[in-house]
Amino acid sequence: MKMLGNFLWLIFGGLESALGYFSGALALCVTIVGIPFGLQIFKIGFLCLWPFGSKVTDDDSSSGCICIPMNIIWIIFGGLYAFLVHVLFGVVLAITLVGIPFAKQHFKMARLSLAPFGKKIELGI
């Protein structure tokens, strides 16, 4: 069932959103200052490629002294926008019975896109 969900996800917008996240991550990784943020965008992009069966968990360094300030900077410069977009798509998909599994994946991505520092993704491949 995960394979079918991931296949449908990729066809109906997952691949395009992952490519968007990857292009933004590459643009940030070109600059030295943007590398930590680019790596977090790569995390969200990988989750966009394979959301069904994947888990977002806290990393060992989630309570580190650098995670909180980096997440605050993240929220100010784009994380809030990504969070709101995923929540909006999740709510729209949750209206239909067929869209509920896809809405759950958008809510998972919304949680990650709000505060990605200190999180890790376990892909369920």
Number of strands: 2
**Contiguous helical run count:** 4
What's the mean pLDDT score?
A: 90
Low-pLDDT runs: none
What structural class results from the helix and strand content? mainly alpha
The radius of gyration is: 14 Å
Listing every helix as H and every strand as E from the N terminus to the C terminus, the arrangement reads: HHEHHE
The percent range for helix content is 55-70%
Strands of the largest sheet, in order across it?
Answer: 1-2
Distance between the termini: 12 Å
What would the principal axes of the Cα set say about the shape?
Answer: globular
Largest sheet: 2 strands, antiparallel
Q: How much of the polypeptide forms β-strand, as a percent range?
A: 5-15%
Keywords:
125 residues; mainly alpha; two-stranded antiparallel ribbon; 4 helices; 70% helix
Please outline the helices and strands.
Blueprint: H1 2-30, H2 35-49, E1 55-58, H3 67-94, H4 100-114, E2 119-122
Antiparallel strand pairs: 1-2
Helix pairs in contact: 1-2, 3-4
Outline of the structure:
The protein has 125 residues and is mainly alpha-helical. Helices cover 70% and strands 6% of the residues.
3D structure, described in words:
The protein is mostly helical and 125 residues long. The chain is 70% helix and 6% strand. It has 4 helices and 2 strands; from the N terminus they run ααβααβ. A two-stranded antiparallel ribbon has the order 1-2. α1 packs antiparallel against α2. The longest helix is centred in the N-terminal third of the chain and has 29 residues, at 2-30. The model has no long low-confidence stretch (mean pLDDT 90).
